[in-house]
User: What shape does this take?
Amino acid sequence: MKKRTLGNTGMEVTELGFGGAEIGYEKADQATVDRLLNSALDAGLNLIDTAECYLASEESIGQAVGHRRKDYFLFTKVGHASGLEGKDWDPELLTRSIDRSLQRLRTDFVDLIQLHSCPVELLRQGDGIEVLRKARQAGKTRFIGYSGDSEAAAYAVECGAFDTLQTSVSIADQWSIDHSIPLARARNMGVIAKRPIANAAWKTGRKPASAYHHTYWDRLGVLNYEFLRRDLAEAVGIALRFTLSVPGVHTAIAGTKNPERWRQNAQLLEPGPLPASEFDAIRLRWRQCATDAWKGEI
Assistant: This one.
């Protein structure tokens, strides 16, 4: 698995990272998570990303690979109460949430703590940013970042407080390519792509059961990319390679509870970046179809 330097952080991260949402929301059993993460680390993965609100994700990751802490970069996100007393984004809540995440993940520090989809009006107040800064000063995290989309993501970059931006980037979500990512690239910030294959919303040929995937299903119906009618693995590979071909993107976070999926996705990246003609065709189709309402999806 190839690696890229995550902006000014200097972290050499694998192009494909593991996202912890699915193992939490889909309630993967611990034996599955143990097998999934240890086999991925053995195959070369060195980036794990999770969040306090992904149900038992942090605990599962800590139990599975806490003993291998030196083998990977560990990112998490804070902002939602997720069982703690207090309101989302309250500074005192954020402090307690960070300590809870460290305990769950069985570590003294993470490599990156990110504010998780914090609204732009609260970002402007700066209280949450100050909590992350204090956590960095206390050695609880090496770097701080923002995870979110649209105008809030652009502000997070422009305010100069963060080392990284995690934002939605895919064949069905290109707002960031025209707006926030160029800003981040100019500042040499690390850029982490989330939802890099648009949740494979097209894979069954039917509207997904989860409402979380409906926006991408609807957009892909309009975009009508020819390659989505090909073999599923080929289509997923093109979609993933598109995201990693975006200038300024350093790594893509893909989640799964299938122990074989990370290795399979890694193999899809072996051909390297998309040829310029294919990349440009996807971008052109977006410009032809996208409306002002097609903002980044949280």
Remarks:
- The first strand starts at residue 3 and ends at 5.
- The mean pLDDT is 96.
